[in-house]
Amino acid sequence: MSSFIFLCVTLFSTFCYSHPIDTIESQLKSEGVSGWIHGSNTSQGLYVFTWRDPKNFFQHFEFPLITKSPQTLELIKSLQRHDKVKVKGAFLKYPAFKHIQVETISILKKHEESFSLPKKILEGSSLIGKVHAIVSYPIKKNFGAIVIEYGNYTLPAFTSAPEEIKNLYRNDKIKINYRVIQRKNAPPHLKILTQPGKPGIEILENIVDQHQKNLTLEGTLALFPKSPQIKFDIYALKVVDSDGISRNYTLVGKTNELFFEIKDYLESIWNEKSEYANESRNHYNNPFIQLKVKGTTNIISPNQANPQIFIDNLKDIVVSIKK
């Protein structure tokens, strides 16, 4: 068991910097590195730059930006999230994390934010969605916040009754009563409406209720490509219910050997039908590869990105190809 725990820790630990860092460092000192502003907080003096591998969208690194030049600092302060920029400078090799000492920064393309929501959300008063994230509880008295997945949208939602989010888990299926709050130059938010005797949030399915349950689930094959967060490709079962709520269950063998046996088996099937894959926010899904999986579910943290299915035998995964 200890070796398997080590596998899980290794699997989801931060990806060690490798050859892309050398390329970035060389370009910083010469023609410059192109990328995007990941975040900008002028009140805290925090600015973060994202570099992405042009051959692999999921391979990316984030670097804090600092500069000694007052003129360059003023330009950095004017930047917004998703602005495309070119940076010249050098790495400062801090003990904990690499920072970029910026000599010059130029704007390649300003990001034009679109904050539109579909009519169904704008004119609605309730919706069924999935918990995408939970803000640490509580932030302050009479305030709580979550992020809800609804179709292709991720919607920040606030509540004046933080006790309603206290026991939520990521991937919970919920129904909320809300109104839309819109402000100029800011994305729309949802205000969760709580009334006496009428909670603003109703938990329809609490994902943690599946913990340590022996289940048989059906869905399609999903792929999470290796990235700075995971060291190699991870395969999952994508399950979609009648309300369109989807969950990805990471497929894990109960031993190291079985884990890699499952990975290699699903990789060979994926490669045969890879042309049918669809790109999602942080993974790919292949609707032509259908799975029936038997195993034990594992949900150990409210912020766990995806539930896991622990599998005893490769035969517990039944694959069929949609024609």
Instruction: Write the H/E string, N to C.
Output: HHEEEHEEHEEEEEEEEEHEEEE
Report the span from N to C terminus.
Answer: 40 Å
Q: What would you say the CATH architecture of the largest domain is? A: Beta Barrel
Mean pLDDT: 86
Number of domains: 3
Q: What about the largest sheet?
A: 5 strands, mixed, barrel
Question: How big is the Rg?
Answer: 22 Å
Counting DSSP H or I runs of 4 or more residues, the number of helices is 5
Identify the overall geometry: globular
Low-confidence stretches: 1-18
Strand content: 35-45%
| Tally of strands | 18
Describe the structure.
The chain is α+β, with helices and mostly antiparallel strands. The chain folds into three domains: 18-109, OB fold (Dihydrolipoamide Acetyltransferase, E2P) (Beta Barrel), CATH 2.40.50.140; 119-205, Beta Barrel (OB fold (Dihydrolipoamide Acetyltransferase, E2P)); 208-321, OB fold (Dihydrolipoamide Acetyltransferase, E2P) (Beta Barrel), CATH 2.40.50. 16% of the residues lie in helices and 44% in strands. The protein contains five helices and 18 strands. It is globular, with a radius of gyration of 22 Å. The model is unreliable at 1-18 (pLDDT under 50).
Based on the model shown, name its key terms:
323 residues; OB fold (Dihydrolipoamide Acetyltransferase, E2P); alpha+beta; 5-stranded mixed β-barrel; 5-stranded mixed beta barrel; 5 helices; disordered N terminus
Brief rundown of the structure:
By secondary structure, the chain is of the alpha+beta class.
